[in-house]
Amino acid sequence: MTEAMVRKKPGMVSVKEMPVLQDGPPPGGFPPVRYARRIPNKGPSAAAIFLATFGAFSYGMYQVGQGNKIRRALKEEKYAARRAIIPLLQAEEDERFVMEWKKSLEEEAKIMKDVPGWKVGESVYHSGRWMPPATGELRPDVW
Length: 143
Hints:
By secondary structure, the chain is mainly alpha-helical. It is 50% helix and 0% strand. The chain has two helices and no strands. It has helices spanning 3-7, 46-111. The mean pLDDT is 83.
């Protein structure tokens, strides 16, 4: 296919004689190109998120403080009950100790009856201080 048939202009001798056809903009021009970054505004702002977080944290710490007050009051009540019952428990333990001490002295008197100069119940340490047994049992080997 020749150039003359393409341009429908017969008799062209040179390319320089070809009429110039140039594409151009449409009438009224092209629409503007959007090159700016447009992110849609979705969700709360940073300040709103910060305030909500601060509010939730403050409320939680308030609740922790209230729980601490209640826990402290319950602990104090438990300790007060223990302090109130200590004299009763000590009296019961003293009574048990005296009965065991008497049994121990009777057992000592029965065992040491043939030893001259032995005094029943006298301490062998001569420290001048009376100390109760540390184990709570006077004679664990007798049982």
